[in-house]
Hints:
There is one protein chain. The protein has helices at 3-9, 98-103, 108-114, 167-175, 228-231, 237-245, 250-257, and strands at residues 21-22, 34-40, 47-61, 67-82, 87-89, 119-128, 131-134, 140-142, 147-148, 151-158, 193-198, 206-211. With 271 residues, it is α+β, with helices and mostly antiparallel strands. The strands form 2 sheets. Strands 2, 3, 4, 5, 6, 10, 11 and 12 form an 8-stranded antiparallel sheet that branches. It has a 4-stranded antiparallel sheet with strand order 1-8-7-9, with no helix packed on it. The two termini are 18 Å apart.
Amino acid sequence: MAFGDNARKAKEASGIRNGASTTSTPTYFPFDIGNNLFRLFPNEDVIMYREFWMTVPVLMTDSQQKQRYEQKERRAILSVFDSNEMSYLTAEGKKQDPLSEWFYSLSEEERKAADKRIRTRFAVNVLNRNLFLKLEDGTLSRHEEGEPLNVVQVLSHSAGKEGDAHTYQELIDCTKNIRNIKGKKIEPHESDINIRRTGEGKFSTRYSVSIGFNQEEVDFSQFQKYDLASFYKPFPFEAITAMQQGELDWATIQKTYGIPSFPELLTVPVL
């Protein structure tokens, strides 16, 4: 489903922080406290998916280069929204996956005790438009007097049913009627968008979506996007079951069932 079409129709953390410097850019768009600016691509497809985080053994290497297994949280993608079918599809058809079957068999009290839930999220390619200055040592530092970073990242945040309170709905509402300084209606990709984060912690963090001030023209043809469709795919049922059982380590599960760690860049630039 294309974001522009939806606009008309309708914790993965970053290494970059305000004031911090960096020599590399993480795959995922940051949600720092304050303003976070980005630009949507023209006619960009949005991936909507359901996820659940489970504890699995992960081989870790400490500062002394010693390895040991630690229990870490890793995400299982349960299903992905099929806009043609107007429903969520699993890797093995439309039947329920084993994790959802287990989770929804629990009582409300048991779900609260587990302190976990199945979340609906969205993912979309964007240009990071946060302002950066290039320092003498070659690193980049966020600064209000800088220039837009203009690197492709994956923006992923909360989603859900149409009309509900989540970031994807705010994006749709925000991009329905974007206008330039002359009051002329423009397309979503013709203006920066801002997601402002306030507060910290599970119950205090808030996000609000608004139009950014910068509406300069962007040449999208120079950028390579991430292959989100290949990355955000439902896990095979056997992989989900293996994660539930907690007997196989994460690297083995990834290798056995072909689960990538990060999305890959497409080999061709945006047309």
